[in-house]
Amino acid sequence: MRVLGIETSCDETGVAVYDGQAGLLAHRVYSQADSHARYGGVVPEIASRDHIRKLLPLLDETLQASATERLALGGVAYTRGPGLAGALLVGAALARSLAYALGIPALGIHHMEAHLLAPMLEEPPPRFPFLALLVSGGHTMLVQVAGVGRYRLLGESLDDAAGEAFDKVAKLLGLDYPGGPALEQLAKQGDPDRFRFPRPMTNRPGLDFSFSGLKTYTLNTLRGAAEFDDQIRADTARAFQDAVIDTLYLKCRRALRQTGAKRLVVAGGVSANRKLRERLAQLARTSGARIYYPRIEFCTDNAAMVAYAGWLRLSAGEHDSLAFDVTARWPLPELREPPAR
Ligand code: ATP
Ligand code: MG
Ligand code: FE
């Protein structure tokens, strides 16, 4: 089965084609980051309009790049949520109407399930069961994964997500939106010994996270300094990044011990961070667990992961009714397994 995937949950417009036999055939992402940068964050109305503008041209381009006639499609998968309601509706409306016109099934996909399954597009893919750390702009979760749709939430952030903390601290440091990658670059020039930030919630049991305090810590560090120069910006970026990464490391170690898992999947935008990957490589060495990531470009939002998750479920016979809907707030553990064939 050949599946078209559509992603419009936030500020990336994505289209991809995944084929059950041949694998990923083509994918395209248009990032709206420049449209939002001058507002310092995503403006929902601009996001919806940009998706409307970009989605159809991107669809044509992706179908062409994958040498796929529309009639060769066996199903359409789109991100149903969680995300911005107006942005989600653009993708859902196109997906549902295209599927209707072609007489093929459509299926709404959970955006975080798509992130979670993204490493399965790589070689070798992780086998079930595994432990997953999802670190993105809106979520930080540790999930015990028994199979597709079999998710047990072990811990999550009680306030800001890891990526959100990167973005907010980047803003305090005068960096442009989205701040994660820029902060990683700035931190390279930082002195690791000048400041030490706390590792929130690591000195008590449990697998939950809290990152909003690091924002306040950053602010106080900058206020306490005599000058706001390049060195203090870099040193602060370094201290912040080390604190987030060390916290993620400690919680993954704890979760691996607690579950006895031998495989750890790390996905979502923050999993693109090289320092995080270096630190977790130490965990792989000491724990014996193997770690799986998406390729860098599939860490942040894309439609390849949506097409893949859609293929898994559509080829098992799952599909939506002719109506369509989006779900702006949608807890991952509410998902169910696809029907047995
Ligand atoms: P969600 O998936 O939770 O709905 P989202 O789709 O906005 O949120 P993603 O696209 O998965 O999130 O990831 C974007 C986030 O990843 C942003 O917060 C961005 O700053 C962060 N990010 C991207 N690259 C890096 C990096 N190299 N280091 C740290 N953070 C990064
Ligand atoms: Mg984005
Ligand atoms: Fe995302």
TrEMBL record:
InterPro entries: ATPase_NBD, Gcp-like_dom, KAE1/TsaD, Peptidase_M22_CS, TsaD. GO terms for molecular function: iron ion binding; peptidase activity; tRNA N(6)-L-threonylcarbamoyladenine synthase activity. It is an enzyme of class 2 (transferase). Its cofactor is Fe(2+). It is found in: Cytoplasm. The keyword Cytoplasm applies. Substrate binds at L134, V135, S136, G137, G138, D167, G180, E184, N273. GO terms for cellular component: cytoplasm. Binds 1 Fe(2+) ion per subunit. The keyword Lyase does not apply. Pfam families: TsaD (PF00814). Belongs to the KAE1 / TsaD family. Required for the formation of a threonylcarbamoyl group on adenosine at position 37 (t(6)A37) in tRNAs that read codons beginning with adenine. Is involved in the transfer of the threonylcarbamoyl moiety of threonylcarbamoyl-AMP (TC-AMP) to the N6 group of A37, together with TsaE and TsaB. TsaD likely plays a direct catalytic role in this reaction. HAMAP family: TsaD (MF_01445). This is tRNA N6-adenosine threonylcarbamoyltransferase. It comes from Nitrococcus mobilis Nb-231.
